[in-house]
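Retro notes, item 3 of 5
We never archived the inputs for the manganese (II) ion complex last cycle. Fixing that now. Sequence and ligand:
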Amino acid sequence: MGQFPLTLGRFISQKQADDQGASGGLPGLLVQVGLVGKLIAQDLRRAGLLNILGTTGQINVQGETVKKLDEIANETFVKVFEQNGLVCALASEELEKPVLFPENWPQTKYMLLFDPLDGSSNTDSNMPLGAIFSVVRFESKDRMPTEDALARKGTEQVAAGYLLYGSSTMLVYTVGQGVHGFTLDPGIGEYLLSHESILIPARGKVYSVNEGNYQKWAAGTKQYVEYLKIFDTATRRPYSGRYSGCLVADVHRILLDGGIYLYPGELAKPEGKLRLLYEANPLALVVEQAGGRASTGTMRIMDVEPKQLHQRVPLLIGSSNDVRDAEEFIQGKRPGG
Ligand code: AHG
Ligand code: MN
Ligand code: MN
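Structure as it came back at the time:
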């Protein structure tokens, strides 16, 4: 008889014993992110029956319409982390200001940043959704973290990952020692190890971008996407287009099969759409840990110096060779291919 797959809790504790990197209360914190995922997945499974589709009628700090499920997912994250005492601060896409927990400091130095529901335009059509999280440490010995303590460079993350609510619920994380994926077995309510040490192919054949924005792009972005559609068997072109409207789902596909996801800057909006601290940085850490690359087009995502909690950034992420090609076009090094 084959071995029973490891549970998330067991795997993390076992890894922590092996790895120097996963120190302190990180295992508990990751298990609690898993708990948030179970709670949200349960709502999502019956969303059409519970009157939780549609919008709240409010606009969030990003200027975007708030879906009822955005609010529910955000409250679930906040409540779970308020109760467990495992972080001294948290920040969410849905909250203008961070929430500080002075009572948990200095016992815990971890701070959690998250996008509680990613791809929320998909809520009402039973399409994939996700959540993205990033963990950083507050190192000061003598003062409690303040709001600005959460805006940290991607290279300072000690853990990151995502929850994917697709045909199954998955938790994928890294603590800087590779990337591991777990699938929720709903029958027993446990995440079981399904994808150990994920490695992204160096090149793929899928591109994922909202091509409806084509006319808004700079010349280099247009030329790159045109290049992907040209027939050339040596470079396995044309690539296939795949875009779900959920960053987590699109990046997950690319993490497993290779390719590139792009949300580029636009002529009138050079900063792009996605948020640095709780979308781009955590996914960049995951993808780099799997051997891939994440770039703004001109620099590594994780080297971007954050100025604000909700700052946006252009994102090119995926297989290293594909992201390098896109950078070359965007930087005008390969005009016309
Ligand atoms: P969120 O739902 O957290 O605001 O994120 C939406 C993001 C991302 O999930 C997706 O890839 C992208 O925005 C979709 O944007 P467009 O509708 O502009 O393509
Ligand atoms: Mn998002
Ligand atoms: Mn969101």
